[in-house]
Design brief:
The chain is an alpha/beta fold and about 1000 residues long. The protein is built from 29 helices and 33 strands. The strands form seven sheets. It has an eight-stranded parallel β-sheet with strand order 20-17-21-16-22-23-15-24. Strands 1, 2, 4, 5, 9, 11 and 12 form a seven-stranded antiparallel β-sheet that branches. Strands 13-26-31-30-27-29-28 form a seven-stranded mixed β-sheet, with helices on both faces. Helix 4 (about 205-210) packs across helix 9 and helix 10 packs across helix 12 (about 410-430). The longest helix is centred in the N-terminal third of the chain and has 34 residues, at about 305-340. The protein is globular, with a radius of gyration of 31 Å.
Length: about 1000
């Protein structure tokens, strides 16, 4: 790793935190505060009591080593021992061990108490074959260091233990060891033995065995963590605050660096022959790389033996074949561009649009646009391989879901925005009429409102850039400008134009707003309701800046945020939440967005960003509604689906159950996790440094306040040029309860601790006062305001009175979509429940190239799971994408069907069968011809069940029959059966109802989440 000003400052930042948490504060130390108060962790006490778990069922685990006296001491609240277990080859002879610690002697100088540091260090070389295990290796002042050897077939298991056997004293803190460290050196270290797993037939398991073969486990800590360097270490060392760097993705390819192949300007302006020639460099170089990888397989296989070698060989060649398939698809995309003139024009226009998008973005942020925008190789390759099946409805790969897998911050959004730009230009170029060109071409869906609104702003800029380019193309002038819709609806934006009119007249309330964006997506100038008007059944919004290109009523921003307007005139590009589509049974107008009841060309592309979030209960219900969407939108052929994620396991199974599609991951893995050609681990970049904190015996809240204070103060030790990167501390919490109590710490305990903290001469004491929350409690108006506040930099600008935020407290809402490049420091309070969440949340810091993020993971010492992650810190973090858990989606399980199968069926009925569109048409199920159409939809559902969850097919078929029977029965009883009530006072007979108490089988939830309605509580305080 090459050091730069960011990594140098990060080293200083971490050194200061470690100095305050563990010590020593100075080399020759004389403390005027007791060391057990001055320092917070890294202490070994004389004896101790067994750890008492808090009364949480999830934290109670059977410890197989609980009877071991050493483990009792290592896990005690007053920790009395540390150690680690490692593995060496048989035949080991020479090895060495180095021990160090410090004690503090109390002395009275001039009638004032001081604690003087007394360091201890000893190095011992020994021969394991001649070792007497009945005696300690080292014994000094009742501190014993032992080695226990267990012999296996072809290796030895070594367990080193250091125990503070000093007697307890009546004087608190007497006899404590501080800053203890053990270093073990030998050339015979081997990786920890693993189970053969030869009966495991999961191909993904063996793929991970192949690509992660260099990232293996060498040692497990006991009461501490263990660190080592490199893939074949010859030294192990204990650590109280272990460190591990996770490198960012480097999408650059050296052979393409100085070519025109990635230049957006060249691709957008040059003759076709020149462009095609340059584009062909991409698959040619990829093909050459694949062949080189194939030649290296035999060498890789030498590190595996027996049946494992056969398994690895099989998966290695499967990976090679997969790479070849992707290479051929890239070639196919280039050939299609060469042979389709209009598609080539669309490709060039898309390049110019994304180039303009980048230009506007740079200028908006106050930068200088003095460079030539270039694609990252994987972005261009993805667009090329996806283009044929996206623009050709009958293409053989139409039903393959293209899944972009790339670490967070790698440019996935730009990749699918590029594909979107190409598609919408091509749609206009081949349209036979204005009506055919109109309509929604692309839908992108997200699970969280924060993510939806932030991505809406990014996509809106691309649409504006595309319109600027469109104005330069004479043959496109007859078509309307591209537009983009925000589809989140009530609770965020008004459902109706009348409601929008009321809000404009009276001012936005705390819940709904006609301005989900606070600033212009093009120039960054403020947006306000004074520049909004409802005209010709449209809410028109324009920029307040006279210099903006979209600054007038006649030249407005191409934004739609009102549901009614979106239904009346479907936007080219629609961005919404998955929850919104749960309203389909109640809102048949949604069919127009999916290509129904319109003269426009059908919907062509669905983008599912952050696929990993569509899992478990949320994914199960979403998959049921996806059944309806897929059927409704499939007019001539299936809609093309692309997705993106940074953290997912067994994507093939999840995609099949969610979308009934086969999936192809891009870039595909090959033979090494650090290199898939389009992705390499960038070891020249500082990356993100993860640091573990495990303060045994301390109150978790106390530890959090100490750590936070140390982080705030450590900022003062960074270089002023890059201090902004560390200035705002992100604090992540696993629950709202933990977050709420921690806000009080920031307002009370942390400032008090900062006031008394030891600080070097010439270093200022940090003052903190500004805190923000980023949680699901925020209203649509507050979200962009918080994001804007997070963008305020240190030092305070002379032109602005805005101060940067000192700390932002967040829940899992921050883990997706928050892209504030200046953030560089984070505390994760407790190991998150799953690795995917941990990766996504911690990836919010240190995102930009060259910056150095730092993440402190604060473990709860009373939780065995947290302690396990701490003791295996290095192994977990060096390969934590491998530890992502498999998600579960069961859309046709009994409980899921009870919740939403009727909703999915009615959505299909109302949006696909025109006769059932009117609200009073529910009774028409009694007509044989319409009932047969409904049965065809039921058959379609059953076919999907057979393809995704075959074991549920018969039960689903019976369930659908029961729904149909009950519907007919209600219709026969009431000859005027409606679909829904017109308003809450409507007492007529209607079929479907909003979810209230769950007792009526025809109640339908209007969200994919089963969430109780909010209750407004008012509190009146009377002075006594």
């Amino acid at each position: 790793m090459k050091n730069n000003k960011y990594s140098d400052s990060r080293e200083k930042y971490l050194a200061e935190v470690c100095r305050q948490m563990i010590g020593p504060y100075e080399n020759e130390e004389k403390l005027d505060v007791a060391p057990w108060d001055f320092y917070h962790t890294g202490m070994i006490w004389p004896a101790g009591e067994k750890v008492k778990l808090e009364d949480y069922d999830e934290d109670k685990e059977h410890d197989v080593e609980a009877s071991d006296g050493f483990m009792d001491l290592a896990n005690a609240s007053h920790q009395g021992a540390i150690g680690f277990t490692c593995y060496v080859r048989k035949g080991i002879t020479d090895a060495s061990i180095e021990l160090s610690w410090a004690t503090y002697n109390e002395e009275k100088i001039d009638s004032k108490l001081f604690w003087i540091r007394v360091p201890f260090n000893r190095k011992l070389e020994f021969n394991i074959l001649e070792l007497d295990q009945t005696k300690p290796l080292i014994e000094v002042d009742n501190v014993t260091f032992r080695l226990k050897i267990k012999e296996a077939q072809d290796f030895l298991t070594l367990t080193f233990t250091l125990v503070n056997q000093k007697l307890k004293s009546s004087i608190y803190g007497d006899g404590v060891l501080y800053q203890t460290k053990i270093i073990f050196d030998t050339e015979y270290l081997i990786e920890a033995p693993v189970r053969n797993n030869i009966t495991n037939n999961d191909p993904e398991f063996w793929q991970h065995e192949l690509i992660y073969r260099d990232y293996v486990h060498f040692a497990t800590g006991h009461g501490c963590a263990v660190e080592w360097d490199g893939i074949k270490p010859n030294s192990l060392r204990t650590s109280w605050m272990p460190e591990s760097v996770v490198y960012k993705a480097s999408p650059e390819i050296a052979d393409l660096k100085n070519t025109k192949s990635l230049s957006m300007s060249f691709l957008g302006n040059s003759p076709k022959s020149d462009v095609i020639q340059e584009l062909n460099h991409l698959p040619q170089l990829y093909d050459k790389w694949i062949k080189e990888q194939e030649c290296s397989i035999e060498g890789i296989l030498k590190s595996f033996d027996g049946d494992r070698r056969a398994k690895i060989k099989k998966v290695a060649f499967e990976n090679i074949d997969n790479c070849v398939q992707h290479c051929n698809r890239i070639k196919e995309g280039i050939n299609l561009l060469a042979n389709n003139d209009k598609l080539f024009i669309a490709f060039q226009l898309a390049n110019l649009a994304i180039q303009k998008n980048i230009e506007l973005s740079v200028i908006k942020k106050g930068g200088d646009f003095n460079f030539e925008p270039r694609w990252r190789p994987f972005q261009l390759a993805f667009i090329l391989l996806s283009t044929p099946s996206t623009v050709l409805e009958d293409h053989k790969d139409r039903e393959i879901m293209e899944l972009i897998w790339f670490p967070t911050g790698g440019g996935k959004t730009e990749a699918y925005l590029g594909l979107t730009a190409l598609l919408i230009f091509y749609r206009y170029l081949i349209a036979s009429s204005v009506e055919e060109a109109a309509g929604t071409a692309v839908i992108t869906r997200y699970t969280l409102r924060l993510l939806t609104i932030q991505q809406f702003e990014r996509a809106a800029l691309m649409i504006c850039a595309a319109n600027i380019i469109k104005k330069q193309v004479p043959e496109l002038q007859e078509y309307k400008d591209f537009d983009i819709g925000l589809f989140v609806g009530g609770g965020a934006t008004p459902n109706s134009l009348q409601k929008a009119h009321d809000l404009l007249s009276m001012g936005s309330d705390e819940i709904e707003t006609t301005l989900p964006l606070q600033s212009c997506p093009v120039c960054g100038s403020p947006l306000n309701t004074e520049h909004q008007i409802i005209k010709n059944k449209q809410l028109i919004t324009w920029c307040s800046s006279s210099e903006c290109l979209f600054n007038s009523e006649s030249s407005p921003l191409p934004l739609m945020v009102i549901d009614e307007q979106i239904y009346n005139s479907p936007p080219t590009f629609l961005i919404g939440t998955v929850d919104k589509f749960a309203n389909m049974p109640f809102t048949p107008e949604m069919g127009r967005l999916l290509g129904r009841n319109t003269k426009a060309a059908p919907l062509q592309l669905i983008i599912q960003d952050e696929l990993h979030l569509i899992s478990d209960a949320l994914g199960t219900v979403t998959a049921l509604f996806e059944t309806a969407i897929d059927e409704i939108a499939s007019i001539n052929n299936k809609v093309k689906i692309v997705g993106s994620t940074a953290t997912i396991r067994r994507a093939e199974v999840q995609v099949r159950k969610l979308f009934n599609r086969k999936s192809m991951q891009f870039p595909p893995p090959c033979l090494n996790v650090d290199d898939s050609y389009f992705y390499q681990s960038n070891k020249n970049d500082p990356g993100r440094l993860y640091v573990g904190v495990h303060a045994q015996g301390r109150s978790p809240k106390h530890t959090l306040s100490r750590l936070a204070a140390n982080c705030f103060q450590a900022t003062e030790y960074t270089e002023e040029q890059v201090r902004d990167s560390f200035y705002t501390l992100v604090m992540y919490f696993n629950s709202m309860r933990e977050l709420g109590s921690s806000l009080l710490l920031l307002e009370d305990d942390v400032p008090k601790y900062l006031e008394v903290m030891a600080v070097d001469k010439g270093v200022n004491t940090r003052k903190i006062s500004r805190f923000s929350e980023l949680t699901s409690k925020l209203t649509p108006i507050e979200i962009p305001q918080i994001l804007d506040e997070l963008s305020v930099k240190w030092p305070i600008s002379k032109d602005s009175n805005k101060e940067p935020i000192d700390a932002v407290l967040a829940t899992n809402m921050i883990s997706v979509g928050v892209d504030v490049s200046r953030l560089g420091a984070m505390i994760v309070n407790g190991q998150p429940k799953n690795t995917s969440e941990y990766i996504q949340a911690s990836s919010r810091v240190g995102r930009d190239d060259g910056t150095a993020g730092i993440v402190f993971t604060l473990y709860n010492w009373t939780r065995p799971r947290d302690r396990s992650h701490y003791e295996k810190f290095h192994t977990y973090h060096s390969s934590f994408y491998r530890h992502v858990e498999t998600s579960s989606v069961t859309p046709f399980a009994s409980r899921a069907r009870d919740r939403a199968l009727h909703s999915a069926l009615i959505a299909m009925v109302r949006l696909k069968i025109p006769e059932f569109y009117p609200n009073d048409s529910a009774v028409r199920i009694l007509e044989d011809s319409l009932r047969q159409k409904v049965r065809l939809l039921m058959k379609s559902i059953c076919q999907r069940v057979k393809a995704t969850e075959e074991e549920e097919e018969e039960d689903t078929k019976l369930h659908l029959e029961n729904i149909l029977f009950d519907w007919q029965e209600k219709a026969e009883r009431s000859k005027s059966l409606k679909w829904t009530a017109i308003n809450k006072y409507d007492q007529s007979n209607y079929l479907i109802k909003q979810k209230e108490n769950g007792k009526d089988p025809w109640e339908m939830q209007r969200s994919v989440r089963d969430v109780e309605g909010q209750v407004k509580v008012s509190m009146y305080i009377q002075d006594v």
